[in-house]
Give the backbone structure.
Amino acid sequence: MDELKQIAKKIKDSDAVLIGASNGLSITEGLHLFADNQAFEDLFGDIKKKYGLRCILQGMSAQWPTEEEKWGFWSRLIHHYCGKYQESPVMSDLKEIVDGKDYFIITTNGECHFELSGFSPEKVYEVEGNWLTMQCACACHDTLYPSLDPAEKMAGAEKDGRVLSAMVPRCPKCGGPMQIHMETDQNFIPETKGRQRFEAFLEQYHGEKLVVLELGIGWRNQLIKAPLMRLVEREPNAAYVTINLGEVYITDNIKEKSFGLDGYLGEILSELKKECENYNTRSSRYQEKVTSCIKKQTKKRCCIPFSRLFLKFQMLFDPYRSTFCRFGRM
Ligand SMILES: [Zn+2]
């Protein structure tokens, strides 16, 4: 597909890549927050039956009767989708695509699959928080605490959707309940550091060749998609690439510097990765030719004057100047 070749060229010629990702990427990796599908049945069948839970998202924002049940749900979720997570092909392809480029990731996904796949945590801004940190449920202070280890321990001891009371996390300041750092209520502590790093990235690449690569974000998304399109509009050298299944939306004012790909994210990223590799191979072959050409030119320029100089130097001190000259020129 010619369009993929053009996108690969844009990415490889860019100064940096800004990745925007939402639910479509998670679904490609097998995590569907909104679906009452087989994966939900397999993981939460008992909890679904007991509480009438219809999807993961509902469980994330549920008012659980007890802390033991709340952490029963969360620890099972975190253990399954974070603790046991193996880097997916879509993440491997994405890493290859941005290889050698500076990048930044802005996402509403909270499952930390970017970090768990080897992307730098310093280069990820999780707008709505993430599953691997927790906070005081009443936000008595704004420190975030790691949640993976406690969640793994709780998951190991969980029984019938409940964890042991002694394992329930408590706020170290007020002694009250803790909650996963996701924007599920008004007590959510904003991800200030991530936002600051994101703003610093935008400032650093202001006016530069920036490729915005948007993955699996629906057209109604106002949290990431709308701001990214406005960014592309005001950045003169930015390009916009949006990949989504069934819903590709690009505003008219940025159409000329945009690419919209409608299809399965996994398949498109796999093809795009190949095009990036082809582009790298073509570039390195071209670079080899240029380097070899420069070397030949340099050799000619250096050797000729040096040999002449050497000859003249020898002639000055050689008592048999004429003889030397005769042999020297052979
Ligand atoms: Zn507290």
Q: What stands out?
A: The radius of gyration is 29 Å. The pocket of zinc ion is lined by residues 136, 138, 140, 171, 173-174, 176 (CB under 6 Å). The first strand starts at residue 16 and ends at 21.
